[in-house]
Amino acid sequence: MPFLPWSEIDTVLLDMDGTLLDLHFDNHFWIEHLPKKIAERSGKPVEECKATMMAHYQRVMGQIQWYCLDYWAEQLNMDIMAAKREVEHLISMRDDTLPFLDALHETGRNVVLVTNAHPDSLSLKVEHTRLDAHIDTLISTHEFGVTKESQNLWKQLQARLQFDPARTLFVDDSITILQAAKKFGISHLLAVSNPDSQQPVRDIEAFPAVTDYRTLLDEIRQFPVEK
Question: Which stretches within the chain are classed as H helix?
């Protein structure tokens, strides 16, 4: 029996950070690099700045502000994109991403990137990875003013893309976001157990989970979409 019922999947919605790209860049930037820059500017200890930022992250997590570079630029009085470019060498695709995307395209599926990342962050990632050459549509949820954690986003997204929830697969590394997609009615859900290459593989029980998309390729190719 296939890991996923590919004969029932026409549309594949994909998260970006931690799903197609290694989450190490983002984790390093927000947890290490940004607090260090704040410490250098303020003269406060790095650990104190890190604790302050972690508390701030918790207050806005899951909201549009958490993902909004304009919000953080205003809050911190800092050019966030310039700070990101200081560590942009860490941006990288997962090794299994391109084989996965290629198999989805070869079999006639509609492949859409749906990320909570700010458009400027999305542009930076595309600049480094050329993801746009392998995906049909790229969407930042900032276009809708709400995040994937919100049912409002899913309603707007479905209205725009006209996908059939019963024949759609959504892949993400966030359990909270996968639960939101499930609540909306997306029938096929897949979690990523190893979003950050520098962190241990997570044990996920709530959803089918994968550590390497290449284990799915044969099954994907067995069930091309009938046009």
Answer: 24-27, 34-42, 46-60, 64-67, 69-76, 80-85, 97-106, 119-129, 151-161, 175-184, 217-222
Tens-place pLDDT, residues 62-120 = 999 999 999 999 999 999 999 999 999 999 999 999 999 999 999 999 999 999 999 99
pTM recorded for the entire structure: 0.97
Range list of H helices, 112-222? 119-129, 151-161, 175-184, 217-222
Q: What is the radius of gyration, based on Cα positions, of the chain?
A: 18
Closest by Cα among 156, 123, 155, 159 to 138: 123
Measured distance CA(142)–CA(153) in Å, rounded: 10
Q: Which residues pair with 114 in a beta bridge?
A: 139
List the structure tokens of 41.
Answer: 């500017």
